[in-house]
TrEMBL record:
It comes from Variovorax paradoxus. It comes from the Bacteria. This is Uncharacterized protein.
Length: 198
């Protein structure tokens, strides 16, 4: 058992609730991680509240967006992604986008409740997601000090730094050359395009 983030699709026209999954939906999982391409599909206005009980700390953020708009948003963020994740291959991005575009579903959903609940409460996780989503629109601060400039590490106050605190270890060492760190992995028996040949 582990804690996962989940990406899946639905034809529901309104903002569907958690677990509304179309039978033929591609279903992606990422254990103890939130792939950067998944986060790149959304803006802060795509966050909905998903109450799990009457407890106000048990309300978790849930992201949903029209699939076509999500794919276009990700394409518009490629410059940022390629600059800050230099090992991320355009081939993986294109394969990931093909899953979105070929899915035929109207909405893409991102559920991060399990990984968020490992570290903070629901409201705190929502604030962290809002900050991390800001990395795509905020100007990344110049690295501090001579060592920071040498290593090109982001300022500790930046949204990218928060993402790296939570998930950056997946982009270090050998894992940074694996497409699952950026795209996730299939949660079914059907392999995703970037998984063929692995």
């Amino acid at each position: 058992m582990g804690s996962y983030s989940e990406l899946y699709f639905s034809d529901t026209r309104g903002r569907p609730g958690r677990g509304t999954l179309s039978n033929d939906s591609p279903y992606l999982l990422s254990k103890y991680h939130l792939p950067i391409l998944w986060l790149g599909l959304f803006d802060t206005r795509d966050i909905d509240d998903d109450p799990h009980s009457q407890d106000p700390t048990d309300v978790w953020p849930y992201l949903v967006k029209r699939t076509e708009a999500a794919a276009a948003l990700l394409v518009s963020r490629w410059s940022f992604l390629s600059k800050h994740f230099p090992v991320l291959q355009s081939r993986w991005r294109d394969q990931f986008l093909s899953v979105l575009r070929d899915s035929g579903f109207e909405y893409v959903h991102l559920d991060t409740h399990q990984i968020g609940s490992m570290v903070v409460t629901g409201p705190e996780w929502r604030r962290e997601l809002e900050v991390m989503l800001g990395m795509f629109s905020a100007e990344t601060p110049v690295p501090q000090g001579w060592l920071g400039r040498l290593l090109r590490r982001p300022s500790p106050q930046s949204p990218l730094a928060l993402y790296n605190v939570r998930f950056g270890s997946r982009y270090d060492g050998d894992e940074r050359s694996e497409p699952w760190a950026y795209c996730g992995a299939s949660g079914t028996d059907e392999a995703m395009p970037w998984e063929s040949g692995l």
